[in-house]
Design a protein that fits this description.
alpha+beta; Creatine Amidinohydrolase, Chain A, domain 1; Creatine Amidinohydrolase; six-stranded mixed beta sheet; four-stranded antiparallel beta sheet; 33% helix
Length: 383
Amino acid sequence: MTVGAARDIIDLLAERRSALLQLARDHGAGSVAVFGFGSALGAGSASHGALRFFSGWDGHESLSLMLVTQQGAHLLVGSPFMLPLARELQPDLAVEHVPPLDWGKALVALANGTCVATVGFGELPRELDAALTADGFVAGPSLDDAAARLRLVKDAAALGRHRDAAALCDLLFGRLGAELARRRPAWEIQLDLETEARRQGADYCRTWLTVAPAADYPRYWPAEARRVPEPGDQVLFGVALTVDGHWGHGIRMGSIGPQLEAGLSVLRPGLPLGGAEQAMEAVLAERVDAQDRPRLRRFRNGHGLGFSYEEPLTTGVFRQHFDPGAPPAAASDLALAPGMIFELHPNLFVPDLGGAALGEMVLVTPDGSECLLHHPRACQSWD
C-alpha cells in the first residue's frame, strides 16, 4: 500500500468516527465506546463489523474496545500479543493493552465524566458486562441502529473491496470441478479451496460443500462433509470470505432461477427494502402448493452484506426459514438506495429428492441491480 493510499484510509476512518461522535452528541452523550470481537468468529459476530468500520482494526481471536472522544480515539486491545500489531497498523489511534476485565476503570478515566454511548455492547460477554458495572461504568444510549445507518451505502473504496471479494468467490467456483474430479472427501476439498482463497488475498474464508445423492442442507464441518463425490451426486457449494474486512459471498451448482430473478427485479432505488423477500416468496407460493411447503427445508432468501456477513438493518427483512421458531421478516422504513449490497440466495431442499440454491452478490445501482459474481448460474456436470 502506498503512503497516499494509507493516508486516504486514515482520513476516511477519521471521518467515520467524527460522524459517530456527532451521533453520540445527538443522543446526549459526549463520547462513544465501540466493542468488537475479532474476525475469527466470521459470520458469528456482528460487533466485529462495527468496530472494523469505524477503526479498521481486526483483533482476530481477541476482544477489543475503542473509545471515541472529542480529544481523539483510544483502542484498548484485550490481548498483549496483539499490541505490537495494533500499534503498527493503527497509527491514528492511541493504542494500549488493557485486560478486558479492567476496561471499566479505563473507560471511566478516559471518558472524564462524559456520558458514553455504545455500539456493539449487545455482544459483551456476561462476565465482562458485570466487570464494567462493578468498576463504575454506566453505559449510555445504544447507537447500534444509528451507527448502522452510516454503513448502508458503500463508498467507492468499499465497493472496490467488495468487487475484489466477489472475484475470489468466482475463483473458487471455477476451481471446484477439478477438485471434485480428484475424488477426495468433501472436507478436504473445502480445506484446499479455503486455503487458496487466503493465499490469493482473503483475510477470512469459510465454505460449505454439500455432496450427496440428494442435497439436504448446507454442510460446513468435517464431521458432516466426509462423503467422497460419486457419479450421480448433487453438489452445492457456498463461499463466504472477506477482503480487508469486506464480505464476499456466493452459492453455485443448483438451479432456482425464477425466485432469484424475481428478487433481482425489485432491487431498485426507492423501492422498499423488504421487496426482494416478498417477491421471492410470491414465486414460491405460486409454484408450490400450500400443503407441500411445510416439507421444504430452507434458509434465508438473502441478507445485507458489508463489514458484517449479515449487515444490520438490511438483513432482518429476510426471514430465517431454516428455524421454524424464527420471527417473521422485520418491517423497515428504509428504501433501497444506490451503493447498498445484498446477497440474494433463494434455496430449497426437498427430502429424498434434492436441493437447489443460487447466491448472488448484488449491488443496487442508479439503474437497478448489478450482479458482482460472474461464474455461470446454470447447473454444471462433472465426470
